[in-house]
Write a structure and sequence with these properties.
mainly alpha; 3 domains; three-stranded mixed sheet; two-stranded antiparallel ribbon
């Protein structure tokens, strides 16, 4: 039985050269030069059962005809450069003809058959985003795992980028510096008030509530830091609870200060001195404690029923994982914000009523202005927060916290610090009561 190399040798010799010596004696057939491949009967040419050997037949048949065409080539009419013919004795690799089939598809693409053309003709289609092919002539592109994405070449999967409000990016750095600056200013103002606690302007503006208010503002500034950095379970749970309790403590102090201002003015009228007994130091502390405890109860119920938690969000960007804190219960978050808003509106209304009280240093006007800023910031916050995706929602909330905190700090304590530090001649009982010649 002929082997493949023997079959090729026989075919080549029969077509292009006389048989070698001893071919016939070895059992080979005598070649006359007029042989036809189609008439040669061997097991390689038996295509009745379409056996794999048929591929050998096709390859040899194609190569034999290619060599025959080269032998019949006429100089000046050849297929190579300069219309030259090939030399069978010294055939260069760039000269057994190119296949009419398509080139192989590289990694990062998939094969797509051309309709109505031979099966070896196809297009190389680049893999779509999120899919890859890492082999040549891939029929299909495979999808990357959930936390991975396709490389630009679409030939391997790479980990998705993780996106959150980081301490290392410019936005996170600016918010962090602003938060620490606000904390430092609160500490500085608190030091001023403690050092000048016996002066008329500090004593006349309820020094104890002023200290509590400055402490709560420090907490407001510091709680904004919980919104920066990679979300974790404890930061997601603590950030809104700390934010809600800190602001209620702050607004509660302002509300009690406003009530004290109204009570003092009412007590200045004849026969109304008894109303002040309801606004003593213990009553003020108790009111602030009760109002803050209500918010603490809301936060506790929220955390127990449906606690906030970190979440991997892939809806905003296919190639990124956005780390964010889901609020858990939207109702709980709404109640927390609603309670702060209720106290703020109540403080604003009471301060508005006390804005025209006859006093040279009218605390009512300052409270009215500060609560106007506070309410305006948080009214603008809600739609901005809802429409901001991913880390920008955290940035909006931090901005609202910082803006409202700075508004309260500057509006309530700016004029007092100005008088204490720069105009000490106005820090007298006569000036505060309006009996002096100086005006604020």
């Amino acid at each position: 039985m002929f082997q493949v190399n023997q079959f090729w040798e026989y075919t080549f010799q029969c077509r292009f050269a006389p048989p070698p010596a001893g071919w016939v004696e070895a059992g080979g057939a005598l070649c006359t030069g007029q042989e036809d491949l189609e008439s040669v009967e061997t097991e390689f040419l038996d295509i009745l059962n379409l056996r794999p050997e048929y591929n050998v037949y096709k390859a040899v048949y194609a190569l034999a005809y290619a060599l025959d065409d080269m032998l019949q080539c006429e100089p000046g009419r050849g297929p190579f450069s300069g219309n030259s013919c090939g030399n069978l004795q010294r055939l260069e690799p760039w000269q057994p003809p190119q296949s009419v089939c398509s080139e192989s598809c590289p990694p990062g693409t998939r094969m797509a058959r051309k309709k109505g053309e031979p099966v070896c003709c196809f297009d190389c289609i680049p893999c779509s985003e999120g899919k890859i092919s890492n082999k040549t002539d891939s029929m299909e592109c495979s999808s990357c795992p959930e936390d991975f994405w396709s490389s630009p070449q679409r030939d391997h999967c790479v980990p998705k980028k993780i996106d959150f409000l980081s301490y290392h990016e410019p936005l996170g750095i600016c918010l962090t510096v602003t938060s620490l600056l606000g904390t430092f200013i609160c500490t500085f103002v608190l030091g001023i008030f403690i050092y000048h606690r016996k002066t008329p302007i500090v004593r006349a503006n309820n020094s104890e509530l002023s200290f509590q208010l400055l402490f709560s503002l420090k907490l407001c500034f510091l709680c904004s830091l919980l919104f920066i950095g990679r979300p974790r379970l404890w930061t997601c749970q603590l950030r809104h609870a700390a934010f809600g309790i800190s602001f209620v403590l702050c607004v509660s102090c302002i509300l009690v200060k406003t009530m004290v201002v109204l009570a003092v003015f009412k007590a200045s009228k004849p026969g109304s001195e008894a109303s002040l007994k309801w606004f003593g130091v213990l009553q003020q502390r108790g009111t602030v404690l009760v109002l803050t405890s209500i918010q603490a109860t809301i936060c506790t119920a929220w955390l127990v029923s449906s606690s906030p938690a970190p979440h991997k969000n892939t809806q905003y960007h296919n190639d990124k994982i956005v780390y964010e804190c889901i609020v858990g219960s939207t109702i709980g978050f709404a109640v927390l914000l609603g309670y702060i808003g209720l106290l703020a509106i109540l403080s604003f209304l009471l301060a508005f009523l006390a804005r025209n009280l006859p006093d040279n240093f009218n605390e009512g006007k300052l409270i009215t202005f500060s609560m106007l800023i506070f309410c305006a910031v948080w009214v603008a916050f809600v739609p901005a927060y809802i429409s901001s995706p991913g880390k920008y929602a955290d940035a909006v909330e931090v901005f609202a916290i910082l803006a409202s905190s700075f508004g309260l700090l500057v509006a309530l304590f700016g004029p007092k610090c100005y008088i204490i530090l720069l105009r000490p001649e106005r820090n007298t009982k006569k000036a505060i009561m309006g009996r002096g010649n100086t005006k604020l």
